[in-house]
Amino acid sequence: MNKGIGSRYGLTRPTEGDIRKGSFSTPWDAPMIPPFPFRFRNCEVLTLYWRTDPEAMQFLLPPPLRAVGDVACVHIYKMNDVDWLGPYAEANVMFGAEMPGKATGAYSPYLVLSSDVGVTHGREVHGQPKKLGTPKVEFRGDLIVGTVERNGIDVITGTLAYKQQRCNPAQMKPWFDFATNLNLKAIDHIDGRPAIRQLTSRRLAEVVVHECWQGPCTVELRANAQLPVFRLPVLEPLQGFFWRADFTLVEGEIIHDYLEPGE
User: Is residue 151 within 8 Å of 171, Cβ to Cβ?
Assistant: First the structure.
């Protein structure tokens, strides 16, 4: 009977070996998690930097990571065409961090997505602290406006003049290398015992930037207990960038395992 059902829908029932393999997701006949790699095409990104409190940065970091500098940023993405996920929006709050001798990049204390697939993939695979919300990038006359909404509150509002100063994509990372993303992955067994406690690192591949613009920006943060980005206060708005790109999300690596002896 099961064989007939599988044939009817063009599916094969997984074996125990299939379940043990990587890139397996449930429900098995309509999996939630995309396997690596998957491609993002024609993404429009508003990147905004601001000077913040280094003590606040260090407070949000899991040890043994250390904060680098005193600058935070948010990327607000309009993902127009993504394998598996389709069009959606995302926002990633980051600041410079390092694990001496192992990794340097940017740590993400907060992420917001409009996609349930993106939220699930980010949390289950990367360990990113993703939550559901509504990021937007809009063109309002001569202004690019980025907003990040959760619980009916615009938690982040940022602006940049519309395409006034073209720049080289290499200029987009003046304070830290945000292309390497560091995250804390924490998953428990069903009985409450820790199953995974890791620091992970991933870097985007096959990045093609089609255009890039820069200029002075504004950043406003509003308090929200479920998305407390206000803990990285805006002491001075710095530079903003608007860019359009294609890139591929590939596998990352474990840079620290809290459950391994000697780590």
Answer: no
Write out the two tokens for 165.
Answer: 């100063």
Q: What is the pLDDT of residues 134-170, one digit of tens each?
A: 999 999 999 999 999 999 999 999 999 999 999 999 9
Residue 1 banded pLDDT, cuts 50, 70, 90: very low
Q: What is the largest CA-CA distance in the chain?
A: 66
- CATH code of the domain containing 238: 2.40.400.10
**Total residues found in the chain within this entry:** 263
Q: Catalytic residues, which ones?
A: 130
Residue 33 lies in a domain: no
pLDDT in tens, 77-96: 999 999 999 999 999 999 99
Cβ pair 145, 159 in contact under 8 A: yes
Decide: 87 and 68 in contact? Cβ < 8 Å: no
**CA proximity to 105, closest of 113, 97, 93, 115:** 97
Residue 79 covered by a domain = yes
Domain count, the chain: 1
Its pTM stands at 0.94
d(CA 232, CA 218): 15
In degrees and rounded to multiples of 5, residue 241 shows phi and psi of: -140, 140
Q: How do strand 38-51 and strand 81-82 relate by DSSP bridges?
A: antiparallel
Whole-angstrom distance, CA of residue 155 vs CA of residue 42:
26
